[in-house]
Specification:
Blueprint lengths: L2 H8 L7 H7 L8 E3 H9 L9 E5 L3 H8 L4 E6 L2 E4 L13 E5 L6 E8 L5 E3 L7 E3 L4 E4 L2 E4 L1 H8 L5 H10 L5 H14 L14
Parallel strand pairs: 2-6
Antiparallel strand pairs: 1-2, 3-4, 3-5, 5-6, 7-8, 9-10
Helix pairs in contact: 3-5, 3-6, 5-7
Length: about 210
Amino acid sequence: MDHSEIVRLYGPWRSRTVDDVVELFAGYAGPWWIAGGWAIEAFTGISRPHGDIDVSIPRSDAHLLRAHLRDRLDVWAAHRGDLLPLTNPARMVPDTCSNLWLRADGASPWEYDIILMDTTPTRWTYKRDPRVALAFNEILWSQNGVNYLRPEIQLLHKAPGLRPQDQADFETARPVLSEEASVWLRRALQTAHPDHPWIGELVPSR
C-alpha cells in the first residue's frame, strides 16, 4: 500500500525531521535508530520527499517506548491494514505486529511510524528469513550523534515492496555502497528473495 492510499484510509501524517525524533527520544532508556528512506538519505546525502519518518527499536523494547510516551502520544499497533489502540498499558503489542503508529489524539495527524525490529542485545535477524542475520553492533552507523540503519540492510527491507521510492532509493544508494556492503546485500537477496531484480545489479560475490 502506497503512502497516498494509507493517508486516504487512515488520515494524514505530520511532516517530521530527524531533529524532531531526537527531541522525542530524549531521555529514552533503550536503543533507537532512524530507518526507511531517511536512513538512505543520510547515507547518500541526496534528499527526496518523504511521507513520514521511520524510527526503529528492538521489538522487545516496545514496553519501554510506551512508558516513555505515556501522556504525550497515543500508541497504535498497525498490522496488515488493522489499527489497534494501545492506550491500556496492560494491552500487549501483538506478536505479529511490526509497526507502531504515534499521534497525540484522534483529531491529530499521525506523527511517527515506529518499526519493531527482531533483535536481541547481540543479534539482528531479518524478519522475512531468519537465515539472514548479523551481530547487532553491525547493523547501525552514526552521523551527528544519531544512529541510522545501514543502507544495505535498509535496502533488504525495501526489496520485497519494490515501490517507486524503494527503487529510487536503491538506484541512489547502489553507486556509493562499499563492495563489502554490496556483496552482503546480494547474498542476502539470493538467500531470502532469490528472483529479485536487484541481484544482477550488485557486485558479484566471490
